[in-house]
Design brief:
Distance between the termini: 14 Å
Order of helices and strands: EEEHEEEHEE
Oligomer: single chain
Strand content: 35-45%
Length: 151
């Protein structure tokens, strides 16, 4: 699994002009599922994201997690995180998981997040839809995480 995590002051997702998900202070997570991803990847990634110390403390140092600041998550599925651009100029998405598998892991990621930090603190996009994502990136702080390349 791959995630692009952005610390935000607020973020929202619209589908066909209707807001389907929105948060205030927290993390916007663009989530891509690969064909060899499984529950272990989902669990490792979620724990890593929840524990990331990327929010400022009283001394203005990044020492607090989204849990520490009682922030929210907005999770948006994004198969394009698995784009390959080695050949030509048109990306290949062959390394993205098939839609059924990707949706299952995406929904499991959301369910586990809601279990861990609360239903009201987890919002989502709409899987497979054309979405318009708006955000105010705070910092900016943007972090790339790949469960197959744990750096």
């Amino acid at each position: 699994m791959r995630a692009l995590v952005q610390r935000v002051q607020k973020a929202s997702v619209q589908v066909e002009g209707e807001i389907v998900g929105a948060i205030d202070k927290g993390l916007l997570i663009l989530l891509g599922v690969g064909p060899d991803d499984e529950a272990e990847d989902r669990d490792w990634l979620l724990q890593k994201i929840l524990k990331l110390r990327i929010f400022n403390d009283a001394q203005d140092l990044m020492n607090l997690s989204v849990e520490d600041v009682q922030g929210s998550l907005l999770v948006v599925s994004q198969f394009t995180l698995h784009a390959k651009v080695k050949k030509g100029t048109r990306p290949s998405y062959a390394k993205a998981a098939p839609p059924d598998m990707a949706n299952q892991l995406y929904e499991e990621f959301l369910a586990e997040a809601r279990t861990l930090i609360g239903e009201s603190r987890v919002s989502q996009g709409q899987f497979g839809a054309h979405m318009e994502v708006a955000l105010i990136n705070d910092g900016p702080v943007t972090i790339w995480i790949d469960t197959k390349n744990k750096e």
